[in-house]
Design a protein that fits this description.
- This protein is an alpha/beta fold.
- It contains 13 helices and 18 strands.
- Helix 1 packs across helix 3, helix 2 packs antiparallel against helix 3 and helix 6 runs parallel beside helix 7.
Length: 398
Amino acid sequence: MQTIARRPLAPSSLNRQAPSGVAHVVLAQIETWITAPAKGGGGWSDVKPCLLLRVTTDSGIAGLGEAFVLPCREKAVAEIIHALGEAAASLQSASPWAFRAMALEIASKHRGLDFSAATSALEMALWDIHGKLAEKPLCDVLGGDHRTPLPVYANIWSDTQWDDDSLAMRASDLVAQGYVAVKIHPMLNHSAPQAVDVVRHVRDAIGDAIHLMVDMDSQDDLETSLFVAERIEKYRPYWFEEPVDGQDIEALSRLRKTTRMRLVTGEKNCGLPHFRSVLAADAADILNPDIAGMGGILDMLELAEEAHRQDVRISPHCWNSMTVAAAAMLHICAAIPNAEMAEIYPEYIEPGTGYATTGFRVDGTDAHLSGLPGLGVEIDTGALGKLSEHFQSSRPTA
């Protein structure tokens, strides 16, 4: 199977400093919601809590953001968001560029995933405001075109259903819905030989015309991933994801030299220094930092440009709600020259419809942006509040 066709878009080449003519922005209120766990996809998978953010300026413009969160950390990330919002009150104008510079100074090179998730959410909201003030979709502001169809894939993940038949049935159901690419996690509750059987079983069920991604969920033992990689190449995986911990760049580099499959890494990592090390080691074909955990959209754009120079592609990870973060992911994919397929969690779509108009639609093959200004997402805060287990509001003071 061939890779997804490259789109003839130019890199954004955004500078670290705000361009001239950027509107003056003063933060007036920051609100965060943490949604309660839910069920999705007819009970196929649990939907984890999601942390959503609204930033309102003193002129009444609201920007939306979302932070990548994991269990036991959601409230901590929300606290970081509100603390950073208070710090941003000292900025002459809270542009994405000024906020990024401030966040890097505060981090003082101690930028962990939770801190980066908080900065990602706030910068995302500031970009939403920036696009609304410019009266353009975010991707158009960044040099892309919101009319570009954006290839997507469906992630098949469950915390309870792992057997071969269930995975094959779920994959077949998603293909019937129109998806032409699906991702499976064959090592969940399986040995390495069983994982090989899972890949074979799913490939047989969906046929050769559908792209099949394999996610190894960061194995502790490189030999396990080497064993699986050698035996599943004949089933033509579109890519081989997270074979080991993304921090183990030496192991990634070794594996990439031994397999013809495209190697993907980055979902658990953040910050440009890490990804520059991966690029320097020639350790990946595709990078997949989480759109809501990387650190911010400016970091994502800078990484995309540096990766593009090495013919490495970007497929933003998005284990978040299929609302705000997913919209940001799609705008980035529409704005960079080396975008791969964007990640969709089908189980997360329905819960999001209870409180958001997403600003995009998915037809299985592609996602299509609405063309509305900024991220194009609208939130019903009343409905969101009813589905949330934690709400916090603060008013930054200079």
